[in-house]
Amino acid sequence: MWPEASRIRIFMPFPGLEVPHLCAQCDDYPCIKSCPVEALSTDQGTKAVIVNREKCISCSKCITACPGHVPFLHPKDNKATICDFCGGDPECVKVCVEAKYNALTLVQEEPTVDRKLFARKPVEVAKDLAVNLFGEKGEEVI
Ligand code: SF4
Ligand code: SF4
User: Fold this and answer.
1) Which of 42, 62, 74, 98 has its CB 3.0 to 4.6 Å from that of 31, i.e. a possible disulfide?
2) Between these two residues, 135 and 139, which has the higher pLDDT value?
3) Atom 2 of ligand 1, nearest CA residue
4) Domain containing 96: what range?
5) Could you tell me the CATH number of the domain that includes residue 29?
């Protein structure tokens, strides 16, 4: 209904290529470390980044500190906004299953995965996808 305010945003860096953009929950949380007013913390249960909107001064430091520039300032209150996992019961998963797309599933964390690798800018993801699809020089890979 209001994509600009959604905590999971979809970008289309190139026509026809849609890239979801969301928090990867980095092990070292560069966003939290960068905040000058300690407005960011982690939820002990879900490990999601939680924003204290009262404390946030909209300085954007968390955005530049994030390798994927995932946080954004909400169009309504101009405060940092990050997916908070809906407290551990994500609405996106529920609605996807309800609509029978079944593209999303809630899975257990895999400790061996370096989550920071998934914190990427949409254009970087799109470039990699384009190379996978069409090859380095644009020729189609079979
Ligand atoms: S935008 Fe808000 S949450 Fe982000 S670093 Fe600045 S004060 Fe902290
Ligand atoms: S992906 Fe960005 S917002 Fe999420 S934990 Fe890492 S640095 Fe923070």
Assistant:
1) 62
2) 135
3) 56
4) 6-134
5) 3.30.70.20
- Domain assignment present for residue 101? The answer is yes
Ligand nearest to the CA of 85: 2
Query: What is the model's pLDDT at position 138?
Result: 56
Q: What is d(CA 21, CA 8) in angstroms, rounded to the nearest whole number?
A: 6
Q: Does a structural domain hold residue 69? A: yes
Could you tell me if the CB of 119 is within 6 A of ligand 2? yes
pLDDT of residue 31: 98
Number of domains the chain contains = 1
CA 38 to chain centre: 20
Rg, the chain, Cα only = 16
* 83 falls within a domain: yes
DSSP state of 138: S
Q: Give the nearest ligand 1 atom to 63 CA.
A: 4
Tell me the β-bridge partners of 17: 14
The mean pLDDT value for 24-38 works out to 96
